[in-house]
Specification:
The structure holds 2 protein chains of 2 kinds. By secondary structure, chain A is of the alpha+beta class. Chain A is built from 5 helices and 5 strands, in the order ββαβββαααα. In chain A, 34% of the residues lie in helices and 15% in strands. By secondary structure, chain B is an alpha+beta fold. Classes of the chains: A alpha+beta, B alpha+beta.
Amino acid sequence: MEIRFTLNSIEQSIEITKSQTLFDYLRNSGIKSVKYGCDDGRCGACAVLIDNKAFNSCLILMHTLNGKTVETIENFGGNRELHPLQKQFIDEGAIQCGYCTPGMLISLEALNRENQNPNEDEIKDALAGNLCRCTGYVKPILAAKSTKEHENE
Amino acid sequence: MKVIGKKTPRVDGVALATGKPVFTDDVSVADTVFIKILRSPHAHAKIVEIDKSEAMGISGVVTILTHEDFPAHYYTTAGQGYPEPSPRDTRILDSTVRFVGDEVAIVAAETNEIAEKSIEKIIVKYEILPANFEMEKATESSSLHPESGKTGIYNTQKNMASHLEAEIGDAEKAFSESEHIFEGTYSTPFVQHAQIEPHITLTWLDENGRLNVRTATQVPFHVRRIVAEVTNFPISKIRVIKPRIGGGFGGKQEILTETLCSAITLKTGRPARLELTREEEFYATRSRHPQKISLKIGLDENQKITAMTANILENCGAYGPHALTVMSVTAQKLFSIYKMQNFKVVGNAVYTNLPIAAAYRGYGAPQAFFALESLMDEIATELGICPIEFRKKNLFELGDELPIMRALGEGREGFKAFVNSNGLAECMEKGRKLIGWDEFQQSDKNSPIQRGIGVATSAQGSGIAGIDMASAFIKMNEDGSFNLLVGATDLGTGSDTALAQIAAEVLCVAVEKIIVYSSDTDLTPFDTGAYASSTTYVSGGAVKKAAEKVIEQILEQGQKFLNLENVKIENEFVIAETGDKISFKDLCTKSFYTENQMQIMAEASNMSFDSPQPFNATFAIVEVDTETGFVTVGKIVSITDAGKIINPQMSEGQVEGSIPQSLGMVLSEFMTFDENGKMTNTNFDDYHIFTSLDMPEIIVDFVETDEPTAPFGAKAVAEIPINAPAPAVVNAIFNACGVRIRNLPITPEKVMKKKI
């Protein structure tokens, strides 16, 4: 089966199998920011943006992506220019092991695109699907808040 | 100080924030085979026969290994000091399985899917043996480890993996003379590390036939030693590389996937990859030892503790990695905060047919402080005295000896230890203000929601006295930067950054000038690894010593190049009294190419016979719904004395992250088993770790002390804050509704049952 979709701003036209997940496709295509944490959509480490909303890529079958736009944090600017959220995550000490960081950044970016001025409860809601065992979510929430404050300055 | 104590972003921050391929599984090697493990469905059974013919016949299956492929050599999976104090009771693939999930066979295939299909086709004939799931019945149950050749087991017939006892003074006599005596028995469940990155290993043979092991580990040098021993392959031909790792908390102090993966590569000659599934992480890796601790405390008429006895029963599960040493820490920590002349402790660690417990952040101390700080609260309530004042009047003081440390080391006799820094009383005072202890008001008695407040304290260590050793190597580059090579292992804590700060401070340069490379057994010098809160204290000490040697060399070269005696360092220049100066850049370039040629470089090793204690006081405010028994933690204040703080932001992060792990142990995290010993909650829905929505308000602060034995006065911070939140919450629940629960976890059912 062939599908067409956009991955990190580049249009793709690829052959897929019916049971192939987006997670497997991304990892096999060299997109390593999506992480394995649980297999079943419970940890958020493999989250990506699909048409601006956050989804766990391990639960997305490739054939459902026809015509859609997929983004991972590889599309956030990388080393040349950090995305404001990436910058604040570093500055506020929101990264410890960093394994769940890409997923958290995806969830927060999805929130940003939907809601220009989220409050703390909305930030916590956005992160509810991202399990983190290192930070207690304190500094990631702080980083999300301070990103907004910087943007509003 | 210019760098120590200052905000310093992580040295690996940009790579992690941009999702660069820095973790074990983010690189791939061509021609890799994928490994899956066939695990036992029985809690205790002898393998009578394994028929792998059908499984081998599946196209794409490369090899299948079982116990028949390995000699009966016994080792421990515990990555700790050598010779290990843990019993050598484990075989790589055994002919007997001892818990549901024990390893039976490994399949290597061209893909994961083929490997999965293949393990289903392996036919195993088992002879079922009697199984025991209760630690209280372990000594009467049939032996789990009767095989000869196993060593270090305290009593094989009675299923006792380890035993300890220590006594100072005469506790029984002191009890007979005490004004008050209080007793209580406290128990904790199996809990899981639940780090988000599972155990994962990649192995391959390089162009010289050397075995490369890229693995998510906290202990690369122990991995090299144990892989060499188990696969009978020389240490000189093994290189272990630890990339960034996605959390460990002690779970990656075990050698689990490395031995199996290496065996496949050595057998097939092909690169191999073994990643555990989340389900396997839950039932087949490691967990926190359940313990049952009986305490008895005697007090004089001034409410001073005169004596304490402790009886510890520890559940190891099917094998005994860390059995003795975790229990030793429990015993040590029971006598580490409050001063008394008489104490006695007896501990037994026993085998059951359940998943295996081992090292988990806190390492026996969370169990100790749940028991001790619960009982201290019960005493204060009984005597009608302030729990803070009661604790404060019993604290060890500066200069006091900690007699337990001499009587009981970790696995062997201990060393004399003294309290050289202790900010615990100040921690309690600071926390008291920040939580609003004196102003706190309980809810109206008729309200269904009852609010309560509680406090608990704790101590930990900084490395293992007389055992942990670390080393560092520093060399200078001609742009004035320095390579810092350390065996120390950053498991996400930020230790690479803290060590870079220590080097930068001594070398008088910015942190950006320090290029850290860590945890590669070919390129970095030895370090026992990241455990026991040792990295800042032990490895930091090595970095400081190495940097001091480098500074001496820079000064000597400066004297020669400037041809002047009295020189000092300022802003990356060597400057003479006359004002003549040479930059670090020019000094190193000259040293490389033109004058008095040499590489400015130095190495140093460090170990300590001290393990100074960091301290913590944690305060909790909870709400108990008395109609449902549901407990909500509203606020946690955690105040820590970790000596001087090297990196404030990262230290806060350690505390903030440990709090939900401790709250999980009280309220939502516990492994459950069916009647056959099979773990039943093996996913993140049924085993609930705290999410962003579960988090209480958290206030973190520090009381800085100056530990004289430590690099820049810094004690450890990684484990200490995980101990006290649990008992603080338990005490707050009692304060809220009068329900005292002595066996964790606290479920709504237990609260309701006790209430009636």
